[in-house]
C-alpha cells in the first residue's frame, strides 16, 4: 500500500511541471498582441512595403496591378503580380487579407 502511495505521489510530482507550463503558456497567449493583417485591396504602397519579402518596388507593383485590374478576389491572385510567387505567398500567410 505504501508503494502505491509513493508511486501516486511521484506521478503527481511528474505532472505538476506540465500543468504549470500549460498555465503559463495560456497566460502568455493572452498577453500577446493580436496581429492585424494588411489588406492587399486597401493598403497603400508604404504599408504593403512593411510585409516580409515585399519592398518598395513590389509594393508599388501590387498597387499598380490592383488599380489596373481591380481588387484581388483571392489571396492567391497576388501571384499575378510580377515578382510574387508561391514561396513569397507562403511567407505572407496570416499577414495579409483581402
List keywords for this structure.
98 residues; mainly alpha; two-stranded parallel ribbon; 4 helices; 56% helix; 4% strand
Summarize the structure in words:
Strands 1-2 form a two-stranded parallel sheet. The chain has four helices and two strands. It has helices spanning 2-31, 45-48, 56-69, 86-92; strands at residues 38-39, 96-97. It is mainly alpha-helical and 98 residues long. The longest helix is centred in the first third of the chain and has 30 residues, at 2-31. The protein starts with a helix and ends with a strand. The model has no long low-confidence stretch (mean pLDDT 83). 56% of the residues lie in helices and 4% in strands.
Low-confidence regions = none
- Please state the average pLDDT score: 83
Oligomer: single chain
Structural class, from helix and strand content?
Answer: mainly alpha
Question: Could you spell the SSE succession in H and E letters?
Answer: HEHHHE
Please tell me what the overall shape is.
rod-shaped
Order of strands side by side in the largest beta sheet? 1-2
Amino acid at each position: 500500500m505504501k508503494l502505491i502511495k509513493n508511486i501516486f505521489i511521484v506521478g503527481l510530482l511528474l505532472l505538476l511541471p506540465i500543468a504549470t507550463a500549460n498555465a503559463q503558456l495560456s497566460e502568455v497567449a493572452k498577453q500577446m498582441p493580436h496581429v492585424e493583417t494588411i489588406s492587399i485591396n486597401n493598403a497603400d504602397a508604404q504599408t504593403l512595403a512593411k510585409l516580409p519579402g515585399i519592398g518598395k518596388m513590389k509594393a508599388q507593383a501590387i498597387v499598380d496591378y490592383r488599380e489596373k485590374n481591380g481588387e484581388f478576389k483571392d489571396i492567391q491572385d497576388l501571384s499575378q503580380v510580377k515578382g510574387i510567387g508561391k514561396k513569397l505567398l507562403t511567407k505572407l500567410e496570416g499577414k495579409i487579407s483581402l
